[in-house]
Design brief:
This is von Willebrand factor type A domain-containing protein. It holds the Pfam family VWA. With 334 residues, this protein is an alpha/beta fold. The protein folds into 2 domains: 106 residues, Immunoglobulin-like, CATH 2.60.40; 184 residues, von Willebrand factor, type A domain (Rossmann fold, 3-Layer(aba) Sandwich), CATH 3.40.50. The longest helix has 19 residues. The chain is globular, with a radius of gyration of 20 Å.
């Protein structure tokens, strides 16, 4: 009897630890439903038909996991209008309630694009408020460093065009003044995406103390600086610092952000509407910490001739309340 009691107590303790990894966050302002691509499986091909899986994390406007979704809630498209070009899709299977591996407390470098285009894509500075919400969702043992990047002679940058606003800190609120300064007072230039991400990876590898160390990259544009995507991915894998990418607007390089995230162990989120950043940044900590719920979808793609090049596709998510959003990703079907 005593052995049974001890075993039961052990199981309860383990469950409590696992459940504690997923935090429920109250988003203080209204957001829009959003989601992240966690993994895209390698297609299995038979003739001109390819079968593949995709893992997605879906949250509502309040940042809560959207449970209970079925086949009627997911539609694969070749663009966001639903126009059919060359491919036909069929959803073969859907499994919800999966959980990402538990990774524990994180040290995250939050790297924000401060290029001039953010004046148009984010006129209400929701990327700033979203970052504050992310900082508010930190666990007691999580730590965050903050940097922003652009070009320009007056921009107070370090190597790689990155301005370090503060090193790893357990008190996220200490970065509020720095975040507020990004709204209007710092000169905005171009987008040195790769060199800045590489700098953040090296800084994180050298200064983060947690085993679970990551870079969170936010951008609304495409790289117009030096280095390359492959160099950043190689550095990320070498340093064991995954890159989580967040893209805002239709001007981002979907293929770059998708591959940079999924090839390094991170996830990719795209916001067509800046309000989606609110819900995503509210739940981002759960993805970083692990034990976040997700769906695994199995699709079949067919065509007269499957494309042999990497294809940009869009997963449309339709929530029961009528809200819709799209999750772009890149896949090579043949």
């Amino acid at each position: 009897m005593r052995q049974l009691i001890y075993r039961s107590a052990f199981i309860i303790t383990i469950l409590a630890i696992l459940q504690s990894c997923e935090r429920i966050i109250e988003v203080p302002i209204a957001g829009e439903a959003s989601g992240a691509i966690i993994r895209v499986g390698t297609p299995s091909r038979s003739g001109q038909t390819a079968t593949f899986t995709i893992d997605v994390h879906v949250v509502d406007g309040a940042g809560n996991y959207a449970s209970g979704l079925g086949a009627q809630n997911f539609t694969m498209m070749e663009d966001t209008t639903g126009r059919k070009y060359s491919l036909s899709f069929r959803l073969l299977d859907i499994k919800g309630g999966n959980r990402t591996p538990v990774k524990g407390d994180y040290n995250a470098f939050l790297l924000l694009d401060q290029s001039g285009s953010t004046d148009d894509t984010d006129p209400d500075n929701l990327r700033i408020r979203s970052s504050q919400i992310f900082l508010e969702s930190m666990g007691n043992n999580d730590k965050v460093a903050l940097g922003s990047f652009t070009t320009g002679q007056l921009y107070p940058s370090l190597s790689g065009n990155v301005h370090l606003h503060g090193g790893f800190n357990a008190k996220g609120t200490t970065f509020y003044p720095a975040l507020d300064s990004l709204k209007n007072t710092i000169l905005k230039g171009n987008t040195p995406l790769f060199t800045s991400t590489a700098w953040a990876i090296n800084y994180t590898a050298a200064n983060a103390k947690a085993q679970n160390k990551v870079v969170i990259l936010f951008t609304d544009g495409q790289n117009n600086g030096g280095s390359s995507q492959s160099a950043v991915e190689s550095l990320s894998l070498q340093k064991k610092v995954p890159v989580y990418t967040v893209g805002l607007s239709t001007d981002v390089g979907f293929d770059v952000l998708n591959n940079m995230a999924l090839n390094t162990g991170g996830s990719f989120m795209w916001a067509k509407d800046a309000k989606q950043l609110i819900s995503y940044f509210g739940t981002l900590g759960n993805l970083l910490r692990g034990n976040a719920e997700y769906y695994t979808l199995t699709f079949e793609a067919s065509a007269g001739s499957l494309p042999t090049f990497s294809k940009l596709l869009y997963l449309q998510v339709s929530l029961p309340n009528g809200k819709k959003f799209w999750m772009p990703y890149v896949i090579k079907l043949a």
